[in-house]
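Memo to structure team: turn this sequence into structure tokens by end of day. - J.P.
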Amino acid sequence: MTELNARQRRCTAWPNEVERAPAQKAMGKGRRWGRQGDGDGKGAGEGEGGGESDVPKSVIWAIMSVSMSRDGTAPLGADTLIVTPTFNERENLRFFVAATLAVAPGAHILVVDDASPDGTGALADTIAADDPRVNVLHRPGKLGLGTAYVDGFTWGLQRTYRYFFEMDADLSHDPAYLPEFFAALDAGADLVLGSRNIPGGGIEGWGPGRHLLSKGGSLYSRLILGVDVHDLTSGYKAFTRGTLERIELPSLRSNGYSFQIETVYRALSAGLTVKEVPIVFVDRRAGRSKMSRDIFMEAVVMVWKLRLAGLRRR
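Reply from structure team:
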């Protein structure tokens, strides 16, 4: 394989042939996903009068490379479902879908929308009508992150998907990392999570308070649960079909961000292989964070419930 082909297959080469490794160096500090548009889901670079796009170069190169594959035949993302829960993500959704499918053109996306007042669900229907790789699951109201993923994964398990991803629609999870997730899955990992807390990982756009809360919460969970995973609260994840079946989705008790902790803990308790890959998490460019005091307190308490449940099983 030539050097160029190797870079194309990773979908992480830049047009000027500068590698994106480590991620922070090649992507650049403070990089922007894109300028926000006028609320119709289009960025400033789309349509008449748009300026130069701030799309990551890795995504541009993925488009130029035309559906690069892992094995030379199937496009990246074949047999994969990417689930993204949404509530008031209209400003972000169109670009999220385009950027994600540019890197993994073989994947399907399931938007799980909780009756967003801003019309995210209607926009998702419009996108799905134009692209058969996009599906929409409408729910009657804001029912929580955990149940959104359970409903989305359950929908996918009723079909023939092999891999299942969690990704945020707010553009904080860069699709440029998807080839690394697939490589880890292909190497035998049962669950792959994007880690902000290992070498090469990081966070951009947060103040000291949120950094402390995130790192402190992860350390708190690790110590109580006695696990070696460095970023238990990461929401950028990939599961094999067998992993979702083993962790018994219907019995998951978490609904907020503690859902992320519970899924990893159950996988480890079942003896499955969890692999961390470094990611740089970028704070959302539009909309509001869904974090709340109730969600935080649920995570604090749920860690102890998981620990006690684990002790009873011994």
